[in-house]
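Researcher: I'd like a structural prediction for the single chain below. Treat it as a standalone chain; there are no partners to consider.
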Amino acid sequence: MTLTPRFALKGALCIASAFAVAGLSSSLAYADDDPRFQAPSSSETGSISSRSIDIKSLPSDRCTSLTNGDLCVVIQQGSSGTNYKNVKVSYSKYSGSQIHSYLGYSANGAEVTGGYFYLTSGNYRTDTWNNRYLPGCPSIVGFIYTDGQGRFQTPAAPSC
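Model: Treating it as a single chain, here is the predicted structure.
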């Protein structure tokens, strides 16, 4: 049986739709309209040797050492007032094979994530969310989700 191009196109669209509905998109951790996805204000990826922040200099309660790298959360005062914070989550990958991951943080019972990225050893990724409304000085947990491995997180860090 030979498929006509019209039927083949419909089949391809159905398969693509099924992947999208099943959440198998490789570009975002969540759909754009999902409230958990909030595009970071900025994302930075590069060589560990050229990064502007030395992860090892951060307080130990802000980082966790994983098998192949370090995961940290940095909280700074935002520019819009006392209850606004800039949240940076950074993963430095020192060894191991390439990963497909996304970064995020949780605070006040809500979770925020950025988009998926690939990362190889010797490189880092930092996602920054600026001026996030976080009233009441909540503790903030940074995390990385890696396909095939699961979720890893930092210790809860105070935001005030």
